[in-house]
Amino acid sequence: MTSPTKAEDSGSAAVLDPELTATTDVVKGEKQPEGRSPGQLMWQRFKRDRTGVVSACVVIFFFVVAALAPVISKLYGKDPYTLYAQEPDYPFLLDDFAMPSGDFGGISGDFWFGVEPKLGRDVFTMLLYGMRTSLYMAVLVTLLSVITGVIIGMIGGYFGGRVDYWIGRVTDFFLGFPQQLFFIAFMPVVTAMFVDPQDETPTYLRAVAIIMVMWFLGWMGLARLVRSSVLSLRDREFVEAAKVSGAPPGRIVRKEILPNIVTPILVQATYILPSTILTIAFLSFIGVGFVEPTPDWGRMFKVGTEVYEQDPMFLLFPGAALVIFVLAFNLLGDSVRDAFDPKTGR
Amino acid sequence: MSDNLTLPAQQGSTGASTEALLKVEGLTKHFPIYGGFPIKRKVGAVQAVDNVDLTVGVGESVGLVGESGCGKSTTGRLITRLLEPTGGKIEYAGQDITHANRKKLAPVRSEIQMIFQDPYSSLNPRQTVGTIIKSPMEVNGINPAGGREKRVRELLELVGLNPEHYNRFPHEFSGGQRQRIGVARALALNPKLIVADEPVSALDVSIQAQVVNLLQKVQEEMGIAFLFIAHDLAVVRHFSQRVAVMYLGKVVEVGDRDSIYNRPRHPYTHALLSAVPEVAVDDETENRERIRLAGDVPSPISPPSGCRFRTRCWKAQDKCATEEPPLLQIGGNREGHLTACHFPEEPSIEARSEDVVMDPALKALEKDGNVSKD
After folding, report:
1. Per-residue pLDDT tens over the stretch A54-73
2. Which residues form the ABC transmembrane type-1 domain (chain A) (predicted)?
3. Nearest CB to A236: which of B121, B127, B171?
4. pTM for this predicted structure
5. Which residue segments constitute the domains of chain B, with CATH numbers given?
């Protein structure tokens, strides 16, 4: 049973290695053989992982939709701010209790995902723009946290000794903060730093405040990871070889160490991003993140929980979108890790 | 071997008559041990290298042998300035580089290179072979005629690799090939001195010879001085013109190859040489002395007083515990053959009337074996 498939496999594997077979043929030709870098090998392994490819497609789909939200809403002909219940074009959109009068939360050809209770806004565009807000914020926060974590971790790991000790204690100190309480308590403080509490806070400032607070408490995990990776790489002989050739520390870090820790950084970043999205949604949900009228994922859940007895459909689309996105992103992270490190079997 | 080696006058010299390229005097490296609670303080030191004197002449290859953990590699790392010496002096071409920082060291850097022990960790897995060999040239701003890439291809050819392997990654090569890449990297800067830290001990025996021959070819053709660190005495014998024997951070005996291998004086050298396995084709080759030491190398944290070998030496007396023997040319030694011993052995490796067996259990076993054989 197994032997024919095995033989077939090995045969195809031999053929599947065109670069190696080509090498022997083309040595005298003009094309020189190119070895496959660890990155290329990883890409090949990743392409074979069906879960990874599917979840990558889902994730890309979400990002494309978020990026194209204005275009889509233009084609769709609605925006997330207009109160359509008050528009003369759509009479009887909401009933006497301010709930969508149509079935299933008011889903119709005009309102694909239904109508928001009370205010009568369009759920589809609200979700589009809400995703846009969340994804942009999460990408920014993740990027900032990763860059900070990498720099701090690298400094600690490479220089070691006293520097490492004090950086480690600072990291521990930040890890000691109760994250969610800190977010709730400090969001108003950070906002008040920029704007008089009596004035209205502009939306961009809220975004900046959220990013700052989350950045402030988001880098520690990665810093520790990078530190330990650098620590194990620092004494490897190729680093010593670079030192013997007289390379300055900056070059050693950039050319010798950094390429070797891209893997754990990338894997960790794929875990940080979805959790950041959840945290931003949580902040908006409890009312310290984005406020009316900014469309946001977390705010939609807040409205949803207020009306879920009368209009359960309202929660369906944002909830499903969030679950699918976070699930797909986490699966993608797993696949990336598997592709990078084939030894960690399941 | 190269021509000048056949001249007996130079053979016997310690490199003092020829121009000394590297001169190490009283080199010491103590790794501090911290302990205590709640305030950590220095509670001791691993005396990895203690008062080592060594000279490497221009184009000369010096072997550094000894047991594991005796400070050979640390010495190599001190000389390439990967480690900061605790004391002593390293002089390269008349220039004191003992505590030179990176910038001050820059002009000398390209002349002292290193070949590492483990070919699997000495090449960056994320760089192509071309990048690996090229980067020392980039760091030192060397622009060879015809470009760096051409030079890399030449180097690859020189070390016996296909120049077309330029764009390959280290994981695509075997251990021996990787070590060749390491050699090519060391040669990229046209060094005058290469510290080879056990360059073949991680390799397959069949590959070892190839790499040693490559190093020998490099040494002879390019006139590069070598400090060859190894625990394999046969390899060192093949490669080195002079040999230094280390024990527990100290050089106990140094001399030209013939003196060390055929006329050793220090008991430790005798013991080391007798431990080299040899295939006995017939009984005639069984005329070497046999020495079995007992126990392990003492801890370098608290080395024995006086002579460090005394705890395992069969000739040790009270004097050995109180007085440290200086590294001298003792009576009966040829010129340049220095031994640090109060009670040196006869300059011979012929079999003794009775084997020296220090381990009591082994002694009992040996006796039984002899009885049954008789």
Report:
1. 999 999 999 999 888 888 88
2. 131-333
3. B121
4. 0.78
5. 13-257 (3.40.50.300), 266-373 (no CATH)
